[in-house]
Amino acid sequence: QVQLVESGGGLVQAGGSLRLSCIDSENIFSINVMGWYRQAPGKQRELVATMTSGGNTNYGDSVKGRFTISRNIARNTVYLQMNSLKPEDTAVYYCKAERPTATYWGQGTQVTVSS
Q1: Which of helix, strand or coil describes residue 15?
Q2: How does the average pLDDT of the chain come out, rounded?
Q3: Are strands 109-114 and 10-13 parallel, antiparallel or unpaired?
Q4: What does the alpha-carbon distance between residue 13 and residue 33 come to, in Å, rounded to a whole number?
Q5: By CB atoms within 10 Å of each CB, which of 20, 77, 106, 115 scores lowest?
């Protein structure tokens, strides 16, 4: 059973930084697309950043230039470095792994940015 575990969320003031981690129980080489999504109360879940198995990245327009997705293959871990945080970044952040036969989600980690 594939498991994704996120960590690193917390409370930060506007302009601050956080780094989220997602540890995959399986080899991330088997993932077609791995990424981060977020969902604020009363809003739809939205794309934050994705990375393909080949290392190509894509970012949501609202986070371009501020967030960076990266990975440590040896640790089966994907990271989301979040800089210049804004109050509108407040949400639960979820790790997503798309494999050939299924899509997996982590439990989410709360990020709260105060003004």
Answers
A1: coil
A2: 94
A3: parallel
A4: 31
A5: 115
Residue 104 in tokens: 């997996």
Residues sharing a CB contact under 8 Å with residue 20, sequence separation 6 or more, in sequence order: 6, 7, 8, 9, 36, 79, 80, 82, 93, 95, 109, 111
9 contacts 109 by C-beta, under 8 angstroms: yes
Residues 6+ apart with CB under 8 A from 12: 18, 85, 111, 112, 113, 114
Cα(101)–Cα(5) distance, integer angstroms: 20
- In this prediction, residue 2 carries a pLDDT of 79
Q: Could you tell me how many helices (H) and strands (E) the chain has, helices first?
A: 0, 11
Quote the CA–CA distance of 67 and 83 in Å, as a whole number.
Answer: 6
